[in-house]
Amino acid sequence: MTPNPSYAVAANPVHHDGNSLHVLFAGESQTSPLHALGPKIYDYYLLHFIEKGNGTFRTEHHIYELGEGSCFLIHPGQLVSYVSDTKHPWRYRWVAFIGQDAHNIVAEAGFVDNHSVFTFIKEHSHIPTAISRMQEVFYTKKESAHMASLGYLYLILAEAQDVLSSQSRLTGTESQVQRTVKQMILYMSTQFAHPVSIEQMCDSLGYNRAYLSRIFKKETGLSPVTYLLKLRIDKSRQLLLERPELSIEQIASSVGITDALYFSRQFTRFCSMSPSAYRNRIGRKPGGSSQL
């Protein structure tokens, strides 16, 4: 027996005023047999999640037969059409969003090239619940609905990123070693201001230190210890010029080195002069960041 058609949509009560990311509306529908849209284009991103049923999604270059657990993202200006199955029509939820940062965010989530369609391999997806919560907060008509909808949108895109990155691993677009090294670089780039150690990073990433040191050296040419120290020295050089009111001890602490004497020795090792000499010499050059 074919379910009775239904349709509900809730719009964001907060007007889009050039926000970097903005959810326009969210909705749900039990479509009727052969329910069709397009061919047409949209001027916003429109993501659908199929809860039940079957149907066909078409772009200018591809045709996808999609069923339960599938998700497809329509990009602005993309010519598309989609139609529900005769016997088992789609029940789906959707969310529309726009904004200056939307393109970069969906690309970061993995929606690039032909990766605008995927089928979840998880037993349960949080996407339909997140879209449902969006509808609920929009119905309240509160100003806070805008912020809440962004939170739910990020949760949706985070789950999509998990699936799309998993699919990328299966196709071998990036090796596990390369991804792990990127994670190490990200960890050090965000944690260098704290007195973290390589051991702590290894524990955080869940790998043996010897293994991480070996793959990192192979990919970057530097050991993790040297890379982290160089990162800290590079940042300290910037602070020496831009913050003349800070003492050498304060700068050392600001880049995660608690021993000012050790900092001075390592700075001299990398820059062939002491921190004080560097500040005085470079800061007095024409165009220098500071004049002491």
UniProtKB/TrEMBL annotation:
One GO MF term: DNA-binding transcription factor activity
Keywords linked to the UniProt accession: DNA-binding, Transcription, Transcription regulation
InterPro entries, alphabetized: AraC-bd (IPR003313), Homeodomain-like_sf (IPR009057), HTH-like (IPR037923), HTH_AraC (IPR018060), HTH_AraC-typ_CS (IPR018062)
SUPFAM superfamilies in UniProt: Homeodomain-like, Regulatory protein AraC
Keyword DNA-binding listed: yes
Alphabetized PANTHER family for the sequence: ARAC-FAMILY TRANSCRIPTIONAL REGULATOR, HTH-TYPE TRANSCRIPTIONAL REGULATOR EXSA
Name of the protein: AraC family transcriptional regulator
Biological source species: Paenibacillus antarcticus
